[in-house]
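pinging the channel bc i need a second pair of eyes. not urgent but kinda urgent?? the chain im working w is below, pasted from the shared doc
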Amino acid sequence: MKKNYFLLVIVLLLFVISCSLKVSTSDDAVYTRTDKVYEDTLFFMPIETQNLQIVYDEDTGKLLVVTYITLDRSQMEDITKFCFILDEDTRIINFTINNKVSEIERMLSYSSENIKQKIDHSTLSKIRFTSEIHRFTIPGNLEKDEKIELMIKYSISDQSKGEAYHQTKNEFKLIGDLFWYPQTLVNGGELKLNFNVIADYSITINEKPVNFKKYRSYKFYEHTMQNLFNAPLSIEGKKPTK
């Protein structure tokens, strides 16, 4: 009897482990984030293309963002650890490298001396005050010519006026220089936007109107621009005043 009971326990444990492995490889598996005080050089990721896909939920006021980033391997040299900046109030849901859930380190303490790229004091202070620097490690088993593709899925909730994302009854704003999307200190590459929003809103990008396609009660906006740290992407949506 004791032997049968012991075998049953073993079977149950194996079942639990098997289920855990399946969950960890699902599309929205919980990635691991660790906090780290960093003393060496921080390298920011070079981008070839970044594709931002945004859906606005008017009922909750939240934005769901999925960004697909292809790194520029020609600028990576032999470096395997790279960083990006993202507003501190975003909630990262998932992070993958080449479709595999990967770990992120959040840098807790750093100075301009830690950062490879030249950065002035005011910009560094703004990053510290509003955002977080995240670091990831490129897998060591990639082929030399294999593309490196990141996927970052996150949500943004309404914040106070003047922060990265703020919305009222009739409008919302995403302020680019407050890092509402993953940004890097390395200029270059292409930034593409796909934004779905209910048709009541008119959208401007960097204070300019953009073309859209309308389907039923939604508008679909597309926009392409250069990836430049000092000329980031800002979006404003407004409902018509009655």
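so The longest helix spans residues 2-24. and The CA atoms of residues 54 and 65 lie 5 Å apart. — does that match what u expected or am i reading it wrong
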